Amino acid sequence: MERHVITDAHAPNPIGSYNQAVIANGFVFTAGQIAIDPDTNKLIEGDFKDRVVQVFKNLSAILERAGTDLSKVAKFTVFLTDMTHYGAVNEVFNEYLIEDDAPARSLVAVSGLPAGTDVEIECIAAL
Asked: Are 121 and 79 in contact (CB under 8 A)?
């Protein structure tokens, strides 16, 4: 299997021993993205929806660097520390995706996430 590592300056640098994304077998597998602003390297504070929007911006930058975009995502996995944010996640997804053509998605409650954030999203997209 041939693989190609993707990195983009418009998304946050990894905070561990992983890459922003890897291309393999015609798909882009992103690492989980949190709401770090790549210009400041700081977590977005304030409104939860603003953090989800920042995650989408980070994912979009990585996918663009890989030669694809959000319209080609086959699967999202969303991790939340508080399931009461489920509706807000749906609102942001509906801003970025066409509901009738939306990809598969899993949403998982977790006890904690990196950097103390409350949302992390990863995706798999076709090239």
From this structure: yes
Q: Name beta bridge partners: 75.
A: 104, 124
Q: How many CB atoms lie within 10 A of CB 125?
A: 25
Residue 23 domain boundaries: 3-126
Alpha-carbon distance of 30 to 50, in angstroms, equals 20
Q: What is the pLDDT of residues 78-109, one digit of tens each?
A: 999 999 999 999 999 999 999 899 999 999 99
Tally of structural domains, the chain? 1
pLDDT in tens, 30-71: 999 999 999 999 999 989 999 999 999 999 999 999 999 999
Handedness of CA 57, 58, 61, 66 (dihedral sign): negative
What CATH number should be reported for the domain holding residue 122? 3.30.1330.40
What is the structure's pLDDT at 3? 94
